[in-house]
Design brief:
With 203 residues, the protein is mostly helical. The chain has helices spanning 12-15, 94-125, 128-140, 150-153, 156-192, and strands spanning 46-47, 51-52, 84-89, 195-200. The strands form 2 sheets. Strands 1-2 form a two-stranded antiparallel sheet. Helix 2 runs antiparallel to helix 5.
Length: 203
């Protein structure tokens, strides 16, 4: 069998020259090979395969880039968020309302009695009863007898007894009205849903 293709051209690069693995390095490439970079490297050099050395990683030996932690900013301000809750008073317990109103009305009655006693002492020290009582006794007096004695009528024991009676009546009425108001509120809350309150956390 004869070869009819004729003489084939010879490539000098592969026929006469060495293989790519057997070539000697060029005179200008004696150092290690550096791949081309898209951006210039920072002045401080690189560390770990071309990664720039950060300000937190350069001063700690033996700590890799994955283990380094970022320092928080000290000048950052955080605005406190006020939490709010919207609640509804659906029902008022009449028994608890009665107990609370009873204690509050008793405290109010004691304050009324004490305030009346202090007011009577101040007016007596200022001479109001003697002056007004003398005027009334002269206006209501006659030849047969003296007039109305206001100072003996408005004595301290009588004023305290009168004030105590009023305080007891106020205690009974306030307790009864508060309990009745609790029942009425429960009835109205069943129709309209009750009073809604918005509670906010203190800043």
């Amino acid at each position: 069998m004869t070869d009819t293709r004729g003489p084939q051209p010879q490539y000098e690069g592969y026929a006469t020259g060495p293989l790519p693995g057997e070539r000697e390095p060029a005179p200008g490439q004696a150092g290690p090979y550096h791949p081309p970079q898209a951006y210039p490297s920072p002045p401080g050099g690189t560390q770990g395969g071309g990664r720039p050395r950060g300000p937190q990683q350069g001063g700690v030996p033996g700590v890799g880039p994955a283990q380094a932690t970022r320092k928080p900013r000290t000048g950052a301000r955080t605005t406190p968020r006020t939490r709010k809750a919207r609640l509804r008073v659906a029902k008022a317990d009449p028994w608890s309302v009665m107990k609370v109103s009873f204690l509050l009305s008793i405290a109010l009655g004691i304050c009324t009695v004490v305030a009346s006693a202090v007011l009577w002492m101040v007016m007596d020290a200022m001479g109001v009863f003697s002056t007004v009582g003398g005027t009334i006794s002269e206006a209501t007096g006659s030849n047969e007898g003296n007039g109305f004695d206001l100072q003996s009528f408005l004595s301290l024991p009588r004023v305290l007894v009168f004030t105590s009676v009023i305080a007891v009546i106020d205690v009974v009425l306030a307790t009864a009205l508060a309990t009745l108001g609790a029942f009425i509120y429960n009835l109205s809350a069943g129709f309209v849903g009750g009073v809604e309150l918005t509670l906010a956390e203190d800043e």
